[in-house]
Amino acid sequence: MDTIVYAIPVFMVMIVIEIVTTIIRKKDYYRLNDAINSLSAGMMSITSGIILKIVEVTIYTGIFSAVALMEFDSSELWVWLFAFVIYDFFYYWTHRMGHEVNILWAAHAVHHQSEEYNLTTALRQTSSRFILGWLFYIPMAIIGIPPLVFFTVGLINLLYQFWVHTRHIPKLGWYEHYFVTPSNHRVHHAKNRKYLDKNYGGVFIIWDRMFGTFQEEDEQYESIRYGTLKPLRSWNPVWANLHLYSDMWKDAKATKSWKEKLTLWFRKTGYRPADVAAPMKMPDIHGYQNYDPALSTSQQLYAGVQFFILLLGTTALMAVYHTTPTWFDALWIIVLGANLVMNGSILEKPEQAIKLECLRFSITASALAVTATLMPVASIFWLGLGSLAVLSLAYLRRYSSATEPTAAIES
Fold first, then answer.
1. In principle, which of 88, 128, 141, 373 could form an S-S bond with 107, CB 3.0–4.6 Å?
2. How many angstroms separate the CA atoms of 345 and 355, rounded?
3. Residue 59 belongs to what domain range?
4. Residue 407 domain-assigned (yes or no)
5. Which stretches of the chain score pLDDT less than 70?
6. 279 within a domain of the structure (yes/no)
7. Whether the Cβ atoms of residue 149 and residue 80 lie closer than 8 Å to each other
């Protein structure tokens, strides 16, 4: 069973605690649509990782086996501590380059697209990290950090970063000088000019202090605005992963220079060929309205229930994928992804709910029919489909007779 399966319930409980705290403190740190979109991106990341993480495992293990200068003894505690520290060092540079290079930003931007900052933002992860994300960790394989140690400390590093995605925890005194905290990570997610491209550390903030990228949160400064300078303005988790790649591809086709076609991918983030577009100017982030299409309470409840059922389905897949055929895993990765995309579409265009839900149920039912022989695994999805059908048809019957209007509202 994948370790992440054990972490998911813990994450969800902590998110519920944060939501309750937000309500008690009368803050506006959560929006249902934004939170669902962040979690949908995270769910697509972990399910696609069932197949795609093989790339990173194969590359690291292959390099370690072929060219490692020595092999550290994984039974020694100091090896684990050493690996933990240097992993974070290389994470710093991976993360920093993810903000400074076009193609790397196209992958990492997914994590920054949320216009809110809460624990769901931590789970908003890219699905395309496998393309080049492994590149910066090659030195660890060469010096001889065993794969088990490497992937374990990497998981610990990732899990640590979950709790720092909150606005409820203030500065933590001396701890701020050495470790990544909610305060200095809020700076990292801010799109205010003063805070742009700062605080890249995963566990240790010392790398930022050493390499000149540290910025303290200034509580007297203007309020932090979250998100990306070029906003996503969509609840589609697939488009969240692809839209910057699409933009670069369009620029590569549009420019007349072959040099630009080949190099724009590796230029500084935001670079566009001169014969395609003028350099981007800093937008007015404070005059900008967050993306928040209005939904009625019943529409929000419906989308929330559908998402919860998809969360259960995702958790079930993560729990059993190592016991099922690759084709089964691939099929349900696609089906769950399609469900998440269409649920996101309902959050944007509820007037299309009936058409989208009919399509969604047809796709899911077809997949269930194909995998029904793999009982009892398929029974989990049959249960999910039954719940979806009962809830959806009851809602859609009411919805089809009286569609409530939608409008954009200011966040």
1. 128
2. 11
3. 3-211
4. no
5. 1-2, 374-411
6. no
7. yes
